Amino acid sequence: MKRSIILCLTGILFMVFTLAASPADSEIADKGYVAKRDEIKAMYLVQSLLSWYVRTNGERSVFQETYKGHEKLFTKESIAEFDRLLKSKTLSVEDRKAIRFMKNAFLLEFVGIDTAHFDDDINNAETRTTVDLEGEKEPVPYRQLMVLMAQEKDPDKRKKLQEAQAKVWKEVLNPIYEKQENRVRRLAVEVGYPSYVALSENFREVDIKKLIASSMDFIGRNDALYKGLLSTEVQEVMGIPVEKFTRADIQYFSSLPAYRNFFPAELTVPAFRYFLEGMGLDLTTAAGTQIAIDDEARENKEPRAACYSMTVPDDIRVTVKPTGGIPDFETFFHEGGHAMHFANTTVPQWEFQQLGSNAVTEGFAIFFEDIWGDYNWLVKYRDFVKNYNRFQPVSKQAPLMTDEEIAKLVRNRVFWNLYMVRRYNGAKPIYESILHGGDPSYYKAYYSGSPDDPHQAYKKLFSDAYGFQLSDEDALRFRTDVDSFFYAADYARAFLLSAQLQEAVRAKFGEKWFENPEAGKFIKSLWSNGSKLHPDEIAKTLGYPEVGYEQFRERMERQLAFVNKTIGK
């Protein structure tokens, strides 16, 4: 296996550096800029292929090695050169944006080339670390623990699984993450920013302080609603009062075990194809190739699903590790949303194919994922399962949801949407501002404890966000539960952009827009721009002034009105 991967990468390297010598795919004529773009373009492809094999096969991570030979590329001088280019008065609006995207990428790589060994250490530690569990004859891979927690019915055993996780966080992973955090904060200042937070805001093109303020206002206004839903869902799903619920239960709780049989693993990909067909879409890319799907459940495979845009739009891949249940379907539709976005990108500039705001592609991904909270789609899915059952023996037929079960599922998805907003739009940007030494004005209105104790800050902020108390052990994920350069800010805007997409296509094409090929054409027109448009520009295209909470609220209220009409409050 390793030899075949090496041969594959060797061939790719030849292809990559042949590509690097090809004509420029941008109107920017500056030779220095073109050379830099061709080099980073080649390096990104090699890194993506390496990351694919690390994630899908548990191969040893050697990410640091991919930077060798590129040391002179990612320097402060290179970044200054982009600033010089941006001062030109003859640049078009598109070229100015492309250079800005490139500068942002170089800022991250200036940090990345210095800290890649930490990423290798983390990946390799997660792949190689095993834990001894009571009742298991063989050590269990660390990466398998989350899967086991989602499937474990016994709360005491879930607690032991989390204890095993926490030990790995404390003894193996947290020390690596801490060293990485300290280093990236110093590098942010070295490259000319007052803080890591300021660098992240520049890269994400977001005002984090403003995002936190608007999010906490929405969260506060809907706090009672969320806590009521939390109590209802914990009782419904777990059969216990919310006072007995713990963080160790979250994987099992989110797996929605009573609904597992409605969503058999073997229907995950067919359901996605069926969803696309209604809009006149399929897995064919704009280049005529097919989106590749790896859904094998290898032991050392990273359980978190991912989409890889190796080259846009012709080589797009999705990796998932399905076990059945609604989370698998949502996850696959999420990554499928990414894949369809990249596969239907037709803008020629590489900068707009691979760089720019991740909030845009995350918005498209969550847009597809959120279909599982749409009662009209759930009825259509029920018909799909009914037809599937016609060709299966009785032993393999999937049960069909009743109208009441569909309504309860919609309510459950509303709860999880609110949970995610409280986590990603509120707790994470506040906590990460504290962790990375941000200005106190970002968080002082929401956290009065010491900013020098991230463990306790995490415990307090996420207890408040989740609506149930975390223990000190639960909060040991305070270093592993951090997204590089405030990626949470992209998720935060993506949740809102998804709701705006949902409301816009519903208004334009009706309640069952997913059955209308014209909706597919409209969505493809948005995908075609790649990442060229800022999230607020997408919002304006949809008829909204900017990314905001209004459509998220409207969709949530409409979903709950359906639930109340069907099963009562």
- Proportion of residues in β-strands: under 5%
Overall geometry:
globular
CA-based gyration radius: 23 Å
List how many beta strands DSSP finds.
Answer: 5
Series of H and E elements: HHHHEEHHHHHHHEEEHHHHHHHHHH
Describe the biggest sheet? 3 strands, mixed
Give the strand order of the largest sheet, numbering strands 1, 2, ... along the chain: 3-5-4
- Total helices: the number is 21
**Span from first to last CA?**
56 Å
Helix percent band: 55-70%
CATH class of the largest domain: Mainly Alpha
List the uncertain runs.
Answer: 1-26
User: Which structural category do the helix and sheet elements fall into?
Assistant: mainly alpha
Number of domains: 2
Mean pLDDT: 91
- What is the CATH architecture annotation of the largest domain? Orthogonal Bundle
CATH topology name of the largest domain: Neurolysin, domain 3
